[in-house]
Design goal:
about 800 residues; alpha/beta; five-stranded parallel sheet; about 35% helix; transmembrane
């Protein structure tokens, strides 16, 4: 980016500044005349007590500035500087003195950068020391020992003239035993913004306040009604607990005029923690451990709701997908852009349902604001029309001596919202040391004031810091924003207003080419294989979901897990990213395999037709439907399925149940025939693994048929013979009855005649009767029944019971 801000604009109080500059010139005239009248001499003779010699470039005494208040003083304020001095050398320092020096005016943004790089260089120019009464003295500094200092000076005593940023130095002078003269042994340069009067054209500053974390949730959920989520770690609980990184972000941001930039996945993950969640056990054999931070999660979400009330909220796509990786490696994989669109669509619903505010989803935020044409194309493919980029990837414009306003129209109805690179990166690095934090705050204020003094044109400036600031970085950012909001040259503005502000016609609008994309960022991108695995998992999910009676129990957790698989937070962690994506795919395979065909052994058929059952097992907690089971004969000339090569039947199985599907088969020849059972979805796609088994067919021959026919004929003949025998026996019995009846009639006639003819009756002895027939004889227990036919010597019929 071309250097912007190398010239300052006109001050709002030109008369006053002219008087100050004139006074400074008149005060320096006698001193200059005295220098001109000095005779030539050695450097030692020319040196004055006000300019002690330096010991070395980095100094033997480390000086830190741990606090500077106020960061941007006004007239009447008292500037207080505190910190420590530490003797790093091997010799004790005696007659040590810590004082303040006000150096030259830093009137360009690049000069501030240079001063920041040389903040500990004792050879860097420093102004004259302020009055000796504003110093702190130490009789002795022991090697390796730190001593604190605090110096307070009225702002009026600093002799600040023109408005702008001054180099403020804290120096330590003293002597050592081997160098017994006064010298500068340590220094720390910092920045002192001086703008006591309100600027007429204040800079409108937008500060993006990001609530983004890494991926914590997996795709796995419990089988209970609530679908208990599984987290792959419990680190999120630490981040939202009191004192944690995200807890500090919310506590600090609620009192600032900032635009909240939120990853909906973070909110969804914390909300999942408010009820019941599980994390894996420490060992592979351990059961999942129930997380115990429900109250912490509830409290954090409540605090976020309070913090964002009446504030602008920008929702990133769910999971914060890596737009650059997607543009460079994912667009060639079918379906990758579909996930970005889904992530964008679900973002607004998630934020609104949890925070009860309507967020903006019009923004895309590539990593570190670095873009090229392909990234812009992908960023806008999901509906965003504003892309947050950073100034070090965009040219400011030709011959610009100031930093242009943030919005830049780049064509196609898309606006590049250019964040200021210097203000956005000043909080990078370790901010746990008070000296580093204070230096970052003063540098931020210095850059902001210098930018404001560049021109009297109204401008909108956007600050886009790192995505996941540490707690210390967040604290430093909050201090800087608080000081800026109290300043005389800046006023807060939300991101939407900044994006809608009038663009500067002189600002550059050309999107950098692909060759200009930083190589350091390209090395961290997700590979093509990552998007291929995501696409493969999505294809499996599409096949699986169509058979489910309640698709939401699977589609929602897996869809969000696939979004997380493309997250920016995986940059620099390729192994962890691969493990996460593989875990999602493996778990989906496990669920899909719960609906399967039961293996079958060889089946035997001993007739021309038979029924073959095939069992479908569903071990899921929900029912499956829209499945078709196809049974196919690989040798239809030997074995047909329902008169054809195959047959299909619809299948629906309740959760935790099995169902047998029966198929009618027809055998045409004996031998083995291989049969294949395969489940299909209703759209004709195979589901699961097929089951193959053999069917042994025994054909029924003509000989066998003759034998069976002969047997049947014998049975018929035997039955006919039995029938004729019984009929003959019945006829004989009828004949015997007729004979007996005739004999009875004859006896009766004879009895009648005897009564009429005594001679006849006397021929029989008295008391002797006529011979009895079988029917007239007394019945004995062993006698057969009256109607039983005479026993036959012929064989009995099949199935007939015979008394022996």
């Amino acid at each position: 980016m071309a250097e912007a801000a190398d010239f300052q604009g006109t001050s709002p109080s030109p008369a006053r500044r002219w008087l100050r500059r004139t006074g400074a010139v008149l005060a320096g005239t006698p001193l200059l005349a005295g220098f001109l009248q000095l005779p030539a001499g050695s450097p030692a003779e020319a040196a004055t007590p006000a300019a002690p010699r330096a010991a070395s470039a980095d100094g033997s005494v480390a000086v830190s500035v741990d606090s500077l208040t106020p960061g941007a003083p006004s007239e009447g304020d008292t500037v207080t500087v505190s910190g420590t001095v530490t003797n790093k050398g091997k010799k004790a320092v005696t007659d040590a003195s810590v004082g303040l020096r006000v150096g030259s005016l830093l009137d360009t943004r690049s000069s501030i950068d240079t001063a920041a790089k040389n903040s500990g260089d004792v050879d860097s120019p420093a102004g004259a020391e302020i009055d000796d009464k504003y110093t702190e003295k130490f009789s002795k500094l022991t090697p390796g020992v730190s001593q604190p200092y605090t110096i307070s000076v009225p702002a009026d005593e600093l002799d600040l003239g023109q408005d702008g940023v001054y180099d403020l130095s804290v120096t330590l002078t003293g002597e050592t035993s081997d160098q017994p003269w006064e010298q500068t042994l340590g220094v720390r340069h910092t920045f002192l913004p001086w703008q006591p009067d309100e600027l007429d054209a204040k800079t409108k500053t937008t500060f993006m306040w990001p609530l983004v974390s890494t991926v914590h949730m997996t795709a796995e959920t419990g089988s209970d009604e609530e679908q208990t989520p599984l987290f792959h770690d419990d680190e999120l609980a630490a981040e939202i607990s009191p004192g944690g990184r995200l807890d500090r972000m919310v506590a600090l941001g609620k009192d600032l005029d900032v635009t909240w930039v939120i990853d909906p996945d973070l909110l969804a993950s914390v909300e999942a923690m408010t009820t019941r969640y599980e994390i894996p056990g420490e060992n592979t054999d351990d059961q999942d451990v129930v997380g115990g931070h429900q109250e912490v999660a509830k409290r954090w979400l409540t605090e976020v709701q309070k913090a964002v009330a009446d504030k602008e909220v920008v929702a990133l796509p769910f999971g914060d997908p890596d737009l650059a990786s997607l543009a460079h490696h994912g667009t060639s994989v079918t379906g990758s852009l579909r996930h970005l669109k889904e992530a964008t669509d679900v973002a607004a619903r998630t934020v609104e349902s949890i925070l009860h505010v309507v967020p903006s989803t019009d923004y895309a935020w590539p990593v570190e604001g670095a873009v090229d044409p392909s990234i812009i194309k992908v960023a806008t493919s999901a509906g965003a029309d504003k892309v947050i980029v950073r100034g070090d990837t965009f040219e400011g414009g030709r011959d610009l001596t100031y930093t242009p306003t943030a919005p830049r129209p780049i064509g196609g109805g898309t606006t590049a919202v250019v964040a200021d690179a210097r203000l956005s990166t000043v909080f990078d690095g370790d901010m746990t040391r008070a000296s580093a934090s204070t230096q970052a705050v003063q540098r931020f204020l210095a850059q902001s004031l210098t930018l404001a003094l560049q021109t009297d044109r109204p401008r909108s400036v956007v600050v886009a810091p790192q995505r996941t600031p540490s707690a210390a970085q967040a604290q430093t950012m909050a201090e800087a924003i608080g000081a800026l909001q109290d300043s005389t040259w800046s006023q807060p503005q939300d991101l939407t207003a900044a994006a809608k502000s009038k663009p500067d016609p002189a600002a550059g609008t050309d999107v950098p080419p692909a060759s200009a994309y930083p190589k350091s960022l390209r090395k961290q991108e997700l590979p093509r294989s990552a998007f291929e695995q995501i696409a493969r998992t999505q294809d499996k999910l599409d096949r699986f979901k169509v058979i489910l009676s309640d698709q939401s129990r699977v589609v929602t957790p897996f869809g969000r897990a696939l979004n997380r698989g493309m997250a920016v937070s995986w940059r620099g962690r390729p192994a962890e990213a691969a493990i996460y994506r593989s875990g999602v795919e493996t778990y989906l395979d496990t669920l899909s395999s719960q609906v399967r065909l039961i293996e079958k052994s060889e089946t035997k058929l001993s007739g021309r037709s038979a029924t073959i059952p095939v069992t479908v097992q569903n071990n899921l907690v929900q029912g499956v439907e829209h499945l078709v089971l196809r049974l196919t004969s690989t040798n239809p000339t030997r074995l047909q399925i329902d008169g054809d090569a195959y047959e299909e039947q619809p299948v629906a199985v309740s959760g935790g149940h099995s169902q047998s599907v029966k198929f009618t088969t027809n055998a045409n020849a004996n031998g083995r025939a291989t049969v294949v059972a395969q489940l299909y979805t209703q759209d004709g796609r195979p589901y699961g693994q097929p089951v193959t088994f053999d069917v042994k067919v025994t054909e029924i021959t003509a000989t066998v048929m003759l034998v069976i026919g002969g047997g049947v004929l014998l049975l018929v003949l035997a039955g006919f013979r039995m029938y004729t025998q019984r009929k003959r026996a019945a006829a004989r019995q009828a004949e015997e009855r007729e004979q007996d009846d005739a004999a009875d009639e004859a006896d009766a006639d004879a009895a009648d005649k005897g009564a009429k003819n005594p001679a006849v009756s006397e021929t029989r002895p008295t008391g002797e009767s006529a011979p009895r027939t079988r029917e007239d004889a007394p019945e004995q227990p062993s006698d057969p029944a009256r109607d039983t036919a005479p026993e036959s010597a012929d064989p009995s019929g099949t199935g007939e019971r015979v008394d022996r």
